[in-house]
Every structure is written in C-alpha cells, then in structure tokens.
Amino acid sequence: MKNIAQPSSRLQKTARASRNCPSFRRRPEVSERARLRSSIAEILDPGLRRNDDVLPSRFPRQTDSKKKQRGFTLVELVIVIVVLGILGAMGAEFISQAFKGFFDTDIRMEMYEEGKSALVRMEREIHIAVPNAVDVSTTTLSGDTISFGVVDETSMATSGVFGQYEEEHPTGGTFITDRSAALGTGLVSIYNTGWDVFADGSRIYSIASTNGKKMDFSPEIIGSASPYGRYYAIHPEAVRFIVENGVLNRKTTAVSTNGITLANFNNPQNMARNVTQIPGLDFFTYTPGTSTRNSVVTINFAISRNGETVSFHKEVQVRNVP
C-alpha cells in the first residue's frame, strides 16, 4: 500500500506544477490573438495610443499654413502707426506749450528787470530834484520828456553844511553864511521858483571863495532871498529822461549861471528798449507842490516784446520849498 501511494502523490505534484508554469500553458491560436487585438483596438481610441504623434481624431487638425501665421497684418500696422502719430502729436503739443510758457516767463522777467532798473534810477534822481526845477514837455508823444536840476546831496553831506544861511536879508549881497559849515566849491541855488528860473541860471551862484562858514559869490549878486533862509548845492549837470523811438534815454547838460540858458541835452544813456505808452496815460506828469504837500512826478510806461507787455507806474515826491 505504501508503494502504490507514492507514485500517486508524485503525479499530483507534477500536475500542479504544470498548471503553474507558463511554459506548460496552452498558447491561444493565432486567430484568437487577432480577435483579442481587434477587440482592444475597438475599445481604445486610436488617438490615445502611445506612439501616436498626432492629436486625437476628435480634435480638428491644424494645417501647416496656419501654424506659420505669426506676424501682423498691414491694417494692424497702419492702425498702430496712426495711434502712435496721434499720441506723438499730443505729446509734442504738450511739450511745446510747456517750453513756450517757460520762454514767455523768461521774457517777462527780462522786461521786468529792465523796467525796474530804469524806474529805480529815475525815482532816485527825480526825488532829489531842485525845488520847482522840474519841466515836463512833449516832443513826439504826450508827456514823453522830463527835465530837472539835481541837488548835490553828496557834496552837502561831505561838507557838513546845514542848508540854511544866517543872514536875514542877503538880497543885493554877494555872500551867505551857513549855520554849520561852508561848501568848498561848486554851485548854489537860492530861492528857485520855477523851471525857467533854473534854466536861465538867474538864481544859481558859483562859489568864488570861502572863509569859515562864509561862502562868497563875487562878483555875482544875490537876487531874491529865500523866505525860509534855505539854499541847495547844485549838481553841475541837469538831467533829462526822454522816450525816443521806443527807447528810454537819459541825457545831461551843463548847468548855466548868470542868465545863460541851458544848452542842448546830449550824451544819451540807454535805460530801456521797446518802451510804449500805456493807453490814456502820459509817460511823465508833474503836479506842483503847495504849502502843505510836496510836488509829485508820476511815471507811466510799458515795455512790450514778443507779444508780452509789462507796465510800470510810480509816483515820486519832490521837495518844493526853495
């Protein structure tokens, strides 16, 4: 019984091994393999196969001609050029306006500085004009000329004079005595009452000699005396401001004595260009003073250049007590 059982167990082991070993499996027939392959192909989409290098069939294929279209059309380029041109024109206009504003401001500043310098010069000299020795006249434009004598304040300050003499009635005499000191040399005005009186030199005296506080004018004889006992040292040149052909000039002439009328004003000094008249206003006006107020000179002018205009106005008080 033992010997018969052993072969049976060996056969069972062999049969079991044959079932587990692939080499002993029965291969399917060729037709069966083809049938299985076709069934799998029907299940899977052809576009999803591993080695398929194209998109699935359910997506539209793109042709090579469409793939190569990567630039701009002519219409698109024209539109871009037009838009850039409009933006450039707007930017250029903005920049040009900014530069124009800067240029106009620079011109106005130049005109302002030029006019201010001329106005300050005129104000300074007119303010120290000899009392009543101011004349406003007309050449080609209304009130375009002002002429006046100038007090030599520098000489008076240097000499330390008081500006009033001690004599009560120096009329007919040849000398005056200052209350503090005497002028060394120069010209003296006593009781000037108007431009004509100043222009002919009838109230202007030349100092011939000094003695202490005494100033002698010999052989010149003093005319009318000042009611306030005042006298003024006179600058040897009278001044004229005149507007000629759009130019504001300063001219001078020597002051005369002993009835010699002032000569022509010359030696022009340019003070401002492109000078125009303010509509309705004279360049210069003169209002004589009274016993309660000083004389007043009014200055009005404008400077115009490159379409820009700057106007100037000033009132200058002048002493009027001779």
Quick tags:
322 residues, five-stranded antiparallel sheet, four-stranded antiparallel sheet, 32% helix, disordered N terminus
Q: What does it look like?
A:
- The chain has 322 residues and is α+β, with helices and mostly antiparallel strands.
- Among the domains are: 126 residues, no CATH class; 83 residues.
- 32% of the residues lie in helices and 26% in strands.
- It contains 6 helices and 15 strands.
- It has a 5-stranded antiparallel sheet.
- Strand 1 and strand 2 form a beta hairpin.
- The longest helix is centred in the N-terminal third of the chain and has 54 residues.
The total beta strand count reads: 15
Order of helices and strands: HHHHEEHEEHEEEEEEEEEEE
Could you estimate the helical fraction of the residues in percent?
25-40%
User: Which sheet architecture does the biggest sheet show?
Assistant: 5 strands, antiparallel
| Spans where pLDDT lies below 50 across 5 or more residues | 1-5
Give the mean pLDDT: 83
- Proportion of β residues? 25-35%
Number of distinct helices: 6
How large, in whole angstroms, is the Cα Rg?
57 Å
Shape, principal axes of CA atoms: rod-shaped
Assign the structural class, choosing from mainly alpha, mainly beta, alpha/beta, alpha+beta, or little secondary structure: alpha+beta
Read across the widest sheet, the strand sequence of neighbours is 1-2-9-10-11
